[in-house]
Design a protein that fits this description.
ProC C-terminal domain-like fold; Rossmann fold; oxidoreductase; EC 1.5.1.2; elongated; 270 residues
Length: 270
């Protein structure tokens, strides 16, 4: 079996490890690094997976998954560069960081695959987009797609689109949470208890998402099916349009894309 090391066992790193175990991977084929001893001990006990240092991970794993925050990448690459053996596949889950950064800092010829996951990986419903670097082969992408398929859906796309993906699906759950939060507050304003309002809105969101995914209908068609002439829904939608909610969402996603680009540029000279 392919041995996999996850460098950085935060929420995304832990979710990947959990998903791989659920998909049938042996704990003996998984390992992780974690700089906080207490958390490392908790994860090792919880999943029966070995906690190792970075050097041990590089030497023993076939696939090295980097799941640290972008601002922590420089010291990690400094540690990895002189120790990474040839033939290892490096998978980056760092938002905004291009494969060229890893190829420049790591030994020549290192195969790198860039991944943009999102937090629904925590419940096995991630949307991950993958792109190969200049040395990555189709077999590398096949392997990464198989690994990430254990925690959700996967699409392949050119790396030039990764910053847009970061803004859409990477940050996307936060936008949905924001809307749900506002709708719950509206329910409270209208006299519904918070717990009841939350149950009403969350289940409505789950049902709407299922209709989008399983029904195959266009969002406009699905919305129109709820919108009766002179009814309550069209009255609400008129207010959304009046307040520019559609334009605000588009602007928010564009701003997130720009920030992703900026994160990458911060490391261009690295």
């Amino acid at each position: 079996m392919t041995r996999i090391a996850v460098l950085g066992a935060g929420k995304i790193g832990e979710s990947l490890l959990s998903g791989l175990l659920d998909a049938g991977r042996s704990p003996q084929d998984l390992m992780f690094t974690e700089r906080y001893p207490q958390r490392a001990a908790e994860l090792a006990k919880k999943y029966d997976i070995e906690h190792v240092d970075v050097i041990g991970a590089l030497q023993r794993a076939d696939v090295v998954v980097i799941a640290v925050k972008p601002q922590d990448i420089e010291p990690l690459l400094d540690e990895m560069a002189p120790e990474l053996p040839p033939g290892k596949l490096v998978v980056s889950m760092c938002a905004g960081l291009p494969t060229a950064l890893f190829e420049r800092r790591l030994p020549a010829g290192t195969a790198v695959v860039r991944v943009m996951p999102n937090t629904p990986m925590l419940v096995g419903e991630a949307m991950s987009a993958i792109s190969g670097g200049s040395h990555a082969q189709d077999s590398d992408l096949d392997l990464v797609e198989e690994l990430l398929g254990s925690v959700g859906k996967v699409v392949r796309l050119p790396e030039s689109q990764q910053d847009a993906v970061t803004a859409l699906s990477g940050s996307g759950p936060a936008y949905f949470f924001y809307l749900v939060e506002a709708m719950i507050d509206a329910g409270i304003l209208l006299g519904i208890p918070r717990a009841t309002a939350a149950e009403l809105i969350v289940q409505s969101a789950v049902g709407a998402a299922a209709m989008l995914r399983e029904g195959g209908g266009h969002p406009v068609m699905l919305r129109e099916a709820v919108t009766s002439p002179a009814g309550t829904t069209i009255a609400g939608i008129r207010e959304l349009e009046k307040h520019g909610v559609r334009a605000a969402l588009i602007d928010a996603i564009e701003a997130a894309r720009d920030r992703s680009v900026e994160l990458g540029r911060q490391h261009e000279a690295g």
